[in-house]
């Protein structure tokens, strides 16, 4: 059994907890929280909730620590720190800061002899993998990533900061015509506006100036100004009834040419349609936790990403079984 | 530069030759044929065509030998034999015989200290990878592979063996309703007939009994009897004009459930739409040839499949570049 610890118990931590149940070679040992542990109720009987400060007491009890904090302030500190004591895995998703995070985590993991896997999930993660595979196969081509239809937490937060807004949810939606153009192999140049639209569902305060709210949202720099944005005002009850899920997904498409005269076109498409963004992300992380455990058992150490890990390490099946059943 | 040899010069060999041009770190050294070398004209100036019997003269000149023969009789003999002298890669695609082929190739490659990659392409190959990744991520799920729309060489050959048939081409086509059902997450049980249809374009001899030909095709065991098959009689000119390509493609779809009560459904879909089946297969093989070269330089030896190879080995870019640009 691979003994797992969960560090941070929000949506992602709960997703990891439920994913572990589907993996018969894994066992949840403890959940760590910065809150008062007695205030945290988890879904698995007999598993301890302990304070984050006590994590070092578990050095001999946990094979892989799964970090479920946020990329802004939690993971840049926690992943390098915990890699001193555990094999670790995180879902650090600030793309521009990945090289720095890699370097920080690699320093402590190489020193401790542990394996650390960073930026695991679906983007970064499975989408990154598909960008890499497709570009290696079709060097003469171009790739496109589309996100959605799905809830963007950052954009939903931005809506909620507008004066007069009580609550809101934002969906990122790929533009169907853009998808069609990419799938045709035409390798179009697409602007930000041409790739995605943004749809907002907003609960306003009673008597608020709806026209002003709509205008403020649509013209918000970085978040909405570069997109075609629609704003729907709905009631609190409608928001709860119709928009409480956290779906997401998207598409990675590469089109490329082959042949002595580049006469043949090929389209490689990978897509995800996810009812729950955090539960799917958790499921990817848990498969890679298996890889971290196995790699460390083989003597590997230091920081790794999905690019560095042979696929067979993710599976419960043996190499022989995989060749016989999946190849 | 990675120095490449091509062993066998049919559609696949030509595809490899053209793919090498797109990979700036590779160089084609020689093409080997069992025909009279003087009768074989290749598309790359200054590259030698030599007889297959002389291949051992190139032991110091070739880093990776790409085997482009057929799975029925060529590769079972050639891959283990050439792995005694070279890093090798093949596209052995008789799924049921992969374990035996692996074992044979591994024996000679482990002994010689070379790396051998077998069963590389898209199925087996990229489709296999996607089955593995998706099943590791969503253990509580089911996966489906659909092929087409594309030309099946084996079924086209079967048509041509029917008395009164001059020429013919067969397309395998996924049933749209089946794709829709799978994408819904319903995890349907699908029969052979429900998954694919077969469409045949046939050139008959003048005066042949078309009704008999159609009936013989539709009722042919193993090839057509288990499918809904349509037969179109066309002229030789129409066949040449409309059906001379070798397109193919398909879909690997896994749907799975997550959550404490399996309440959330996720769909992972990978699809290929290929103008040229052999050129795409070649492009995959060439990327993995890079991996074979690098792995052997690191001291690896023995037989491997796409399951055993970390994605970063396929790319011309360095690990740092990949993390900065693709993760």
What do you see in this structure?
The structure is a homodimer of 327-residue chains. The first copy, chain A, is of the alpha/beta class. Helix content of chain A is 33%, strand content 27%. Chain A is built from 11 helices and 14 strands. In chain A, the strands form 3 sheets. Chain A has a 7-stranded parallel sheet with strand order 3-2-1-4-5-6-14. In chain A, strand 12 and strand 13 (264-274) form a beta hairpin. In chain A, helix 1 (11-20) crosses helix 10 and helix 2 packs parallel to helix 3. Chains A and B meet through helix 1, helix 3, helix 4, strand 13 and helix 10 of A and helix 1, helix 3, helix 4, strand 13 and helix 10 of B.
Could you give a short description of this structure?
With 327 residues, chain A is of the alpha/beta class.
Tags for this entry?
alpha/beta; 327 residues; homodimer; 14 strands; 7-stranded parallel beta sheet; 11 helices; globular
Stretches with pLDDT under 50, minimum 5 residues of chain A: none
Mean pLDDT of chain A: 97
Shape call of chain A: globular
Radius of gyration of chain A: 22 Å
- Strand segment count of chain A: 14
Oligomer: homodimer
Q: Which chains have the largest interface?
A: A-B, 69 and 69 residues
Q: Strands of the biggest beta sheet of chain A: in what spatial order?
A: 3-2-1-4-5-6-14
Blueprint of the fold:
Two copies of one chain form a homodimer.
Chain A: E1 2-7, H1 11-20, E2 26-33, E3 48-51, E4 64-67, H2 75-82, E5 87-89, H3 98-112, E6 115-117, H4 126-137, E7 141-147, E8 150-151, H5 153-160, E9 165-174, H6 176-183, H7 192-195, E10 196-204, H8 210-218, E11 228-233, H9 236-242, E12 248-258, E13 264-274, H10 277-297, E14 302-304, H11 319-325
Parallel strand pairs in A: 1-2, 1-4, 2-3, 4-5, 5-6, 6-14, 10-11
Antiparallel strand pairs in A: 7-12, 8-9, 9-10, 12-13
Helix pairs in contact in A: 1-10, 2-3
């Amino acid at each position: 059994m691979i003994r797992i610890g969960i560090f941070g118990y929000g949506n992602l931590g709960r997703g990891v907890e439920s994913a572990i149940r589907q993996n018969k070679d894994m066992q949840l040992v403890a959940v760590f929280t910065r809150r008062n542990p007695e205030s945290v109720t988890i879904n698995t009987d007999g598993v301890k909730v302990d304070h984050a400060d006590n994590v070092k007491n578990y050095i001999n009890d946990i094979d892989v620590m799964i970090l479920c904090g946020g990329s802004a302030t939690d993971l840049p500190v926690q992943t390098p720190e915990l890699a001193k004591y555990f094999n670790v895995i995180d879902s650090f998703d600030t793309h521009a800061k990945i090289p720095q995070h890699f370097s920080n985590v690699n320093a402590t993991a190489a020193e401790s002899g542990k394996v650390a896997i960073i930026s695991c999930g679906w983007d970064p993660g499975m989408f990154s993998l598909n960008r890499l595979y497709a570009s290696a196969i079709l060097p003469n081509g171009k790739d496109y990533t589309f996100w959605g239809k799905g809830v963007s937490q950052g954009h939903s937060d931005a809506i909620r900061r507008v004066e007069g807004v009580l609550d809101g949810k934002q969906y990122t939606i790929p533009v169907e015509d853009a998808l069609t153009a990419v799938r045709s192999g035409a390798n179009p140049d697409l602007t930000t506006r041409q790739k995605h639209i943004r749809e907002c569902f907003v609960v306003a305060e009673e008597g608020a100036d709806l026209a002003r709210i709509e205008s403020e949202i649509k013209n918000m720099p970085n978040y909405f100004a570069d997109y075609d944005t629609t704003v729907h005002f709905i009631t609190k009850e409608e928001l709860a009834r119709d928009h409480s899920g956290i779906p997401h997904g998207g598409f990675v498409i590469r089109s490329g040419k082959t042949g002595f005269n580049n006469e043949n076109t090929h389209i490689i498409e990978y897509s995800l349609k996810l009812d729950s963004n955090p539960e799917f992300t958790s499921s990817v992380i848990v498969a890679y936790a298996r890889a971290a455990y196995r790699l460390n058992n083989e003597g590997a150490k230091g920081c790794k990403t999905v690019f560095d890990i042979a696929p067979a390490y993710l599976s419960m099946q043996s190499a022989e079984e995989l060749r016989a059943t999946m190849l």
